[in-house]
UniProtKB/TrEMBL annotation:
Feature: compositional bias, Low complexity: 487-496
Transmembrane segments: 58-81, 93-115, 135-155, 167-188, 194-219, 240-270, 290-312, 324-343, 363-383, 390-410, 422-442
Acidic residues bias spans: 477-486
Region (Disordered) residue spans: 473-496
Alphabetical UniProt keywords: Cell membrane, Membrane, Transmembrane, Transmembrane helix, Transport
Recorded superkingdom: Bacteria
Protein name: MATE family efflux transporter
Subcellular compartments: Cell inner membrane
InterPro entries: MATE_fam, MdtK-like, Membrane_Transporter-Flippase
GO cellular component, one term: plasma membrane
Membrane-related topology note: Multi-pass membrane protein
């Protein structure tokens, strides 16, 4: 199976949309899976069990966040190598990344399994939930190597231009998890009831089966990035690639830390206004999770698409991909925002009683905050473009400034004067600041000169242009290049 050239030769609008939809579908499936599992545990095993899974899932989110940046660095390196048609370099990235991910996951799994009680004690897990949390989290730690490697394979495929295969196997994993949860929790036939451990075991089995099935399909298709017997030497880590994974991946992983830590502080501020306000904020946040999904999917897709075009030296397509991504964000995120505004009370009523005080507070929160996610979506798309070249520090700094220097101090300083309104209005303020800084860096920053691959081509290495309108016809031959007089240099700054 040869690499798909559509990300560098296809019509931009249609290609980006078709690439983004499976990514969006995967995000939705993951969220639905977590919600359904929580329903099984909370409704049938009790509040202590739900508390146990909540504590364990915080740790799991942190562990997955640790490798998020490294996964993105791997995706970008593979995308640039595939775009440059340097498949040997792409396989070297795969080999080094495979060894790194396997080693890291096995180490984290072993240490986590041993120190599970200590980790939960440090989190002050309630006594009635602690034994359940230990049983649940230890199985999650056993599943961690499969989760890490599963995530690595999916991100590798997306970097190479394939977002459909990860979606179908995510669908398989979620379906297995949903079906196995009640079977293993309550027991069926010869299968004994395992309680909360059954819920964790369902996740382990689902991840393992889906990963094995995906690898079997890729080998059957003779996927071009797979390593065969004669290429096992590529599993020996290449120092330059390993350094890029860590140096470029760590700042992207820290973005998750900035976001999650600011959310924890924000929740503490909200808690000060009482349970009704906290419940309203929690329910509104549930809706915001889905509102942000289109922008996150488009941003990830823009990153994969830009990485391949940077590798191919097609810099004029990069700015057009960014513009199309911004338009998609307006259309998709804007549609969800408008829908919730129209059905504000009804959508919140899925989680809250329609006659309570909390639903009125939640409605007001949505009115103030919801529209700002369109602005934040713009920022995500711009970040997707600049980080695809290897420029990863600026997005981290911008997020830190907007959340920790602007949003949180604003909410804290004005809280005594205007109450919870300071928290709600801090969201639009943070979004405006992050977007302004992102636009400034996109227009005037040096991200076009960044690189992530050790052998990355300089921007001046562009050799040609491909169709770049949404109605263009992609080349049938992936190697065909149309010579243009202005293709040897990137766009002038003034033209951007």
């Amino acid at each position: 199976m040869k690499p798909d050239a559509r990300l560098t030769t296809g019509p931009i609008g249609r290609t980006l949309l078709l690439f983004s939809l499976p990514v969006l579908g995967s995000n939705i499936l993951q969220s639905l899976n977590a919600s359904i599992n929580s329903i099984w545990v909370g409704r049938f095993l009790g509040e202590a069990a739900l508390t146990a899974t909540s504590n364990a899932n915080i740790i799991l989110f942190f562990l997955l966040g640790v490798v998020f940046g490294i996964s993105m660095a791997n995706t970008i390196m593979i995308g640039q190598a595939v775009g440059a048609r340097d498949l040997d370099e792409a396989r070297r990235v795969v080999g080094t990344s495979t060894t790194f991910f396997v080693g890291l996951s096995v180490l984290a799994s072993a240490l986590g399994y041993i120190y599970t009680p200590d980790i939960l004690a440090a989190m002050h897990t309630p006594e009635d939930a602690a034994p359940l949390a230990v049983a649940y989290l230890r199985i999650i730690f056993l599943a961690l190597p499969f989760m890490y490697f599963y995530n690595f394979v999916m991100m590798t495929l997306r970097g190479a231009g394939d977002s459909r295969t990860p979606f179908w196997f995510m669908l398989l994993s979620v379906a297995l998890d949903v079906v196995l949860n009640p079977v293993l929790i309550f027991g069926v036939g010869p299968i004994p009831p395992l309680g909360i451990a059954g819920s964790a075991l369902a996740t382990l089995i689902a991840q393992l089966v889906s990963l094995a099935a995906m690898m079997a399909l890729l080998y059957r298709r003779r996927y071009f990035l797979l390593l065969h017997r004669g290429q096992l030497a590529l599993l020996r880590p290449a120092p330059a690639i390993l350094r890029a994974l860590v140096v470029k991946g760590l700042p992207m992983g820290l973005q998750m830390v900035v976001i999650s830590s600011s959310a924890i502080v924000m929740m503490a501020m909200v808690n000060a206004y009482g349970s009704q306000t906290t419940a309203a904020y929690g329910v509104a946040s549930q809706l915001w999770t889905y509102v942000q999904m289109p922008a996150l999917a488009v941003g990830a897709s823009v990153s994969s698409m830009v990485a391949q075009n940077v590798g191919a030296g097609l810099w004029q397509r990069v700015s057009r991909i960014t513009r199309v991504g911004l338009l998609f964000n307006v259309a998709m995120t804007g549609a969800l925002v408008a829908l919730i505004y129209v059905f504000n009370r009804h959508s919140l009523g899925l989680f809250l009683g329609t006659d309570g005080v909390a639903i009125g507070i939640a409605q007001h929160i949505n009115v103030v905050v919801l529209w700002s996610f369109i602005l934040f979506g713009f920022t995500i798309v711009i970040f997707g473009t600049v980080r695809a070249t290897g420029a990863v520090m600026a997005p981290l700094v911008i997020l830190f400034l907007s959340m920790w220097v602007i949003r949180l101090p604003f909410a804290w300083a004005l809280g005594p004067r205007i109450g919870a309104e300071a928290i709600w209005w801090s969201f639009p303020l943070g979004s405006v600041v992050s977007l302004a800084l992102a636009i400034g860096y996109y227009r005037f920053g040096n991200w076009r000169r960044s690189h992530i691959l050790p052998t990355a081509p300089h921007p001046a290495a562009a050799v040609g242009l491909a169709p770049d309108t949404s109605m263009g016809t992609p080349c049938e031959d992936a190697g065909e290049v149309v010579e243009e007089t202005d293709a040897a240099t990137p766009e002038p700054a003034a033209a951007r």
